[in-house]
Amino acid sequence: MNALLVDDSRLARTELRHLLQAFPEVTIVGEARHAEEARHQLRGLQPDLLFLDIHMPGETGFELLASLEAAPHVIFTTAYDEYALRAFEVNALDYLLKPIQENRLAAALAKARSKYAATASAGAPAPEPPPATPEPVLTPLTEQDQVFVKEGERCWFVRLADIRLFEINGSYTQIYFEQHRPLIPRTLQHLEQRLDPRVFFRANRQQIINLQWVETIEPWFSNSLKIRLRGGPEVEVSRQQSVRFREMLSL
């Protein structure tokens, strides 16, 4: 905290400067002998803390404060105890009687530290959030790509062209290729984003089919479709997706 000492007594300023040596968090940036000099110092130095005498030649300490648009935190230092109530009415941090006791000075500075920390926190710019880690960009897969599939102790390296169906099974997705039906911990939404939409078609909420494996198509209930895949199984296409299927594959 930067502090300005304002007192018409050089001896009083010297004594206060000596006492403040025990508090390394306080840096004395200037001294003033009266209100006018203090005003000039306040404009130039902008201290955090003002040690202010009350009785001075010309204006009193109270009159100095009244003339300021903004004032730092104030600790009054005076030989007169009758102004204590008025001092707290102008929001002084403390009111120290001369000769100033070190324990009273320590208590006043503890209040000043608390106020200073609160002011610094309120006035500091909000810390910038750390840069967001970009989501990994997943490259779309083509039907000729091979994918690694693992279920328990078994592993496969499968061409997507050989997978005829992805189907929800509980909280997993089941993959149909050859005679195998492994389960993988992926959602259909995730798979749909990776797969080529010209080859893999979302038939309904539970299934994605490989169009290259379609064997037969027939009309079904409510203007929907039923598709049979080579090697099975049969898949019912939802009504909404049946409309999309016709639009996508019609001439």
From TrEMBL:
Keywords of the record: DNA-binding, Phosphoprotein
Source taxon at top rank: Bacteria
Domain Response regulatory: 2-113
Pfam families tied to this protein: LytTR (PF04397), Response_reg (PF00072)
UniProt keyword annotation of rRNA-binding present: no
Start and end residues of each HTH LytTR-type domain: 149-251
GO molecular function, one term: DNA binding
Modified residues (4-aspartylphosphate): D53
PANTHER family (alphabetical): STAGE 0 SPORULATION PROTEIN A HOMOLOG, TRANSCRIPTIONAL REGULATOR-RELATED
Protein's recorded name: DNA-binding response regulator
Gene: algR
